[in-house]
Amino acid sequence: VGFLLLVYFAVKLYWQRLSAPWNHFDPIPFKIYPFIGQLPGLSQLNEEDFFREHFKWLGDKDTKIMWLGVDKYLITRDQKVIEKLLVSNTNITKSVSYWILNDWLGSSLLLTTGIHWRNKRKMLTPSFHFNILDNFFPTIENLTTKLCESLEKLAVKGDSFDACKAMKWHSIGVMCQTMMGVEMGDFLETAFKGVKCADEEKTKIVHFVESIDFILEFVITRSKCLWYWNKHILKLFPIGKQYYQRLDFIKKFGTTMIEKRIEKLKNDSEEDIPSNIDSRNKKVIFLDKMLTNINKGEVTVEDLFYDTQTFIFAGY
């Protein structure tokens, strides 16, 4: 009994010392347990509710704290706090909780730090020219028109559809085509049919978008569920097997798209463009701007995959 009491007070003292620096922030409205934090309450929320509830949690406060295990997370809408973080060139080391994205985003700009982060940032900065959206606007407009046409067909038939899913998929579709040059076509219409398309390439595109959507949602679920944290234990669950299968498909499909783009750019050299055509009118995607670093030997196809996926993740 004496030993148990000693352990109890030791745990209590440790937890008090751990949480003391954060006591001036109100916690979100879930009970806090030592070492597991607010995971029991948070694990009951699905992905959409998890984000939807953020503003409710804040109430009349600009900033509150959320405990995931022993890790602390600030939930804030204070612009000054956010600005200090985003403009900083020194506060670039990510917290340990970012491990959950390692399988998907690897050595990307988001997850690296130090000299590797600075080198990547230096290489990617030219790709973010102020008029970059002007180049992508025709693609965005085209995909948005197709989205409206697909939804109109469903509306005319009186069929119901998930508007949230439609917009999520549209966003991913725009990112895939502008970032990687994946021709999306009328993939939304194919996806809403819920049947396998005869066109194998189109089926792969739908599966690619489905897989990205699945991964994006599952990383939230995984972060809230302790039993999913260990990679080997996760693989024992059906959802874990599906996670790694989809992740493998995303990597293979994404890498193939990059390799095809590299080959296409080699074939479509400047010498092949007729003199009466302005090269500025060529269809350019974000990936093209980063491919110049391939020839310099500064990045690999794998690096490009991780970085393009990071921007898809951020754009989502």
Describe what this molecule looks like in 3D.
The chain has 316 residues and is mainly alpha-helical. Strands 1-2 form a two-stranded antiparallel ribbon. α9 (163-180) crosses α11, α9 packs antiparallel against α15 (301-315) and α10 packs across α11 (200-224). The chain is built from 15 helices and two strands. It has helices spanning 2-19, 39-42, 47-52, 54-58, 79-86, 102-105, 114-124, 132-157, 163-180, 187-193, 200-224, 231-234, 238-267, 286-295, 301-315, and strands at residues 63-68, 71-76. Mean pLDDT is 78; it is low at 273-281. It has two domains: 20-91, no CATH class; 125-269 and 277-314, Cytochrome p450, CATH 1.10.630.10. A hairpin with a 2-residue loop joins β1 and β2.
Structure keywords:
60% helix, globular, Cytochrome p450, 316 residues, mainly alpha, two-stranded antiparallel sheet, 2 strands, 2 domains, 15 helices
Number of domains: 2
Summarize the biggest pleated sheet. Answer: 2 strands, antiparallel
**Rg of Cα set:** 23 Å
Name the shape in a single word. Answer: globular
**The level-1 CATH class of the largest domain:** Mainly Alpha
